[in-house]
Specification:
By secondary structure, this protein is an alpha/beta fold. 26% of the residues lie in helices and 27% in strands. The chain contains six helices and eleven strands. The strands form three sheets. Strands 5-6-7-3-8-9 form a six-stranded mixed β-sheet, sandwiched between helices. It has a three-stranded antiparallel β-sheet with strand order 2-1-4, covered by helices on one side.
């Protein structure tokens, strides 16, 4: 069981707040967010390729400057609370010759972890990759590599989880298992977790859903209020919604017609 740590006494009131954010790259506007605020819980960000999801998470993680506008994480700028943030890139840069333990240990850079060995072992147990210990990263399958990178993020014991394309390369069993692990971690640690994915059928399992289209937020709210027309507007294809055990499930229309 990995429990989060924090360097801030005021974390109970922590929120991610963005106002009038504009990012321009090569004279093209990548993202424009007038207002975005979330607190503790599990939050999904949807949108087609190029919508600005990855750019948004990079800004929230402090990796990328915000350009114009205001970005606040627990009342501070992202770079000032890096020890509280765990960021999972869609395609992490990893030394292919490093061992599994070395990869996870590298993720503890600039963290507040005191006992790194304990944190690494806890994350390995939590993600269930003990059978991979001692192997070099380049000998793993793409799915196994993804699990190691997820363990690397959780080893930081973050209060803020920013998970870009969380389910990349994972088979259906590992997708379910990792989602459950992330959800339980979020609840147990009162964390703020933002996930991007193209798996739209997960939308009904989150506390909030945000839909980006060409850098703009076209929806932000509870998943039960997310309509088919909004997803059609974002993705350009027909979407249908189904109610399954009290949850809303979204599917491309062509799959059921």
């Amino acid at each position: 069981m990995v429990r989060a740590v924090t360097s801030k006494d005021s974390y109970n009131d922590c929120r991610i707040s963005v106002e009038n954010l504009e990012v321009i790259v090569n004279r093209s506007r990548i993202i424009l967010i007038n207002k975005y605020t979330v607190g503790r819980g599990l939050h999904l960000i949807l949108g087609p390729n190029g919508a600005g999801k990855t750019t948004f998470l990079k800004i929230l993680s402090g990796i990328m400057p915000p350009g114009s506008g205001s970005v606040s994480v627990c009342g501070d700028k992202p770079r000032q609370v890096r020890d509280m943030i765990g960021y999972l890139p869609a395609l992490p840069e990893v030394d292919p010759l490093a061992t599994v333990e070395n990869v996870i240990e590298a993720g503890l850079y600039d963290s507040s972890i005191e006992d790194e060995s304990e944190a690494i072992n806890e994350a390995i147990r939590l993600v269930g990759i003990s059978q991979l210990v001692g192997r070099r990263f380049n000998t793993l399958s793409s799915g196994e590599q993804r699990l190691v990178c997820i363990a690397r993020v959780l080893a930081r014991r973050p209060r803020i989880l920013l998970l870009d394309e969380l389910f990349n390369f994972l088979d259906i069993s590992n997708k379910e298992r990792i989602f459950r692990i992330v959800r339980e971690y979020t609840v147990r640690n009162n964390a703020i977790t933002l996930v991007t994915t193209h798996e739209i059928y997960y939308a009904g399992l989150f506390d909030t859903v945000t839909v980006l289209r060409k850098g703009d937020i076209i929806f932000h709210g509870r998943p039960e209020n997310l309509g088919e027309k909004i997803l059609h507007s974002a993705y350009g294809i027909g979407i249908i919604s189904l109610r399954v055990k009290g949850k809303t499930l979204f599917l491309p229309r062509h799959l059921v017609e």
